[in-house]
Amino acid sequence: MNENRNLMTRTGFYTKVGTDMIGIYLSNEGPKMFINREIYDLRNPWWDVEMVMGKTGHLITFYWRGEVKLSIRCDLENDLFVSLYHYLSCRTHEQNLA
Predict the structure, then answer these.
(1) Which end of the chain has fewer beta carbons closer than 10 Å to its terminal beta carbon, N or C?
(2) CB atoms within 10 A of CB 47
Protein backbone atom coordinates (compact mmCIF):
# COMPACT_ATOMS: atom_id res chain seq x y z
CA MET A 1 0.00 0.00 0.00
CA ASN A 2 2.98 2.32 -0.23
CA GLU A 3 1.62 3.74 -3.48
CA ASN A 4 -1.61 4.87 -1.79
CA ARG A 5 -1.93 8.44 -0.58
CA ASN A 6 -2.83 8.89 3.10
CA LEU A 7 -3.74 12.02 5.01
CA MET A 8 -4.01 12.28 8.79
CA THR A 9 -5.10 15.44 10.57
CA ARG A 10 -6.40 16.26 14.02
CA THR A 11 -9.97 16.09 12.76
CA GLY A 12 -9.66 12.78 10.93
CA PHE A 13 -7.95 10.92 8.15
CA TYR A 14 -8.60 9.29 4.84
CA THR A 15 -6.84 7.00 2.44
CA LYS A 16 -7.44 5.34 -0.91
CA VAL A 17 -7.24 1.56 -0.97
CA GLY A 18 -7.54 0.15 -4.47
CA THR A 19 -10.59 1.94 -5.84
CA ASP A 20 -12.10 2.62 -2.39
CA MET A 21 -11.78 5.88 -0.45
CA ILE A 22 -12.15 5.37 3.31
CA GLY A 23 -11.71 7.59 6.33
CA ILE A 24 -12.87 8.92 9.66
CA TYR A 25 -13.65 12.52 10.50
CA LEU A 26 -15.05 14.51 13.39
CA SER A 27 -18.30 16.37 12.77
CA ASN A 28 -20.61 18.51 14.91
CA GLU A 29 -22.72 15.35 15.36
CA GLY A 30 -19.76 13.22 16.47
CA PRO A 31 -17.29 10.93 14.69
CA LYS A 32 -18.21 9.52 11.29
CA MET A 33 -16.60 6.87 9.14
CA PHE A 34 -17.00 6.82 5.38
CA ILE A 35 -16.38 4.15 2.79
CA ASN A 36 -16.77 5.76 -0.62
CA ARG A 37 -20.16 7.52 -0.40
CA GLU A 38 -21.52 5.52 2.54
CA ILE A 39 -21.30 7.32 5.91
CA TYR A 40 -21.47 5.51 9.26
CA ASP A 41 -22.28 7.40 12.47
CA LEU A 42 -19.89 5.99 15.07
CA ARG A 43 -22.08 7.23 17.94
CA ASN A 44 -24.44 4.35 17.11
CA PRO A 45 -23.75 0.97 18.69
CA TRP A 46 -24.24 -0.81 15.35
CA TRP A 47 -20.58 -0.98 14.38
CA ASP A 48 -17.76 -3.27 15.35
CA VAL A 49 -14.16 -3.59 14.26
CA GLU A 50 -11.89 -6.60 14.28
CA MET A 51 -8.15 -6.73 13.72
CA VAL A 52 -6.10 -9.85 13.13
CA MET A 53 -2.34 -9.35 13.30
CA GLY A 54 -0.23 -11.87 11.46
CA LYS A 55 3.45 -12.44 10.80
CA THR A 56 3.40 -10.68 7.44
CA GLY A 57 0.39 -8.34 7.69
CA HIS A 58 -2.82 -7.22 9.34
CA LEU A 59 -6.45 -7.86 8.49
CA ILE A 60 -8.91 -5.11 9.51
CA THR A 61 -12.65 -5.76 9.23
CA PHE A 62 -15.35 -3.13 9.86
CA TYR A 63 -18.90 -4.36 10.55
CA TRP A 64 -22.13 -2.37 10.44
CA ARG A 65 -25.18 -4.11 11.91
CA GLY A 66 -23.32 -7.41 11.68
CA GLU A 67 -22.54 -7.02 7.97
CA VAL A 68 -18.98 -6.68 6.69
CA LYS A 69 -18.60 -3.25 5.11
CA LEU A 70 -14.83 -3.21 4.79
CA SER A 71 -12.15 -5.87 5.01
CA ILE A 72 -8.59 -4.84 4.24
CA ARG A 73 -5.23 -6.59 4.35
CA CYS A 74 -2.20 -4.37 4.86
CA ASP A 75 1.54 -4.77 5.33
CA LEU A 76 3.11 -4.80 8.77
CA GLU A 77 4.82 -1.47 8.15
CA ASN A 78 1.54 0.28 7.25
CA ASP A 79 0.35 1.69 10.57
CA LEU A 80 -2.59 3.70 9.18
CA PHE A 81 -5.05 0.91 9.81
CA VAL A 82 -3.52 0.14 13.19
CA SER A 83 -4.31 3.79 14.02
CA LEU A 84 -7.87 3.27 12.75
CA TYR A 85 -8.24 0.20 14.94
CA HIS A 86 -6.92 2.01 18.01
CA TYR A 87 -9.17 5.01 17.35
CA LEU A 88 -12.26 2.84 17.09
CA SER A 89 -11.23 0.79 20.13
CA CYS A 90 -10.76 3.96 22.21
CA ARG A 91 -14.22 5.22 21.16
CA THR A 92 -15.73 1.95 22.41
CA HIS A 93 -13.82 2.20 25.71
CA GLU A 94 -14.96 5.82 26.23
CA GLN A 95 -18.60 4.85 25.59
CA ASN A 96 -18.35 2.02 28.12
CA LEU A 97 -17.04 4.44 30.74
CA ALA A 98 -19.92 6.90 30.21
Answers:
(1) C
(2) 19
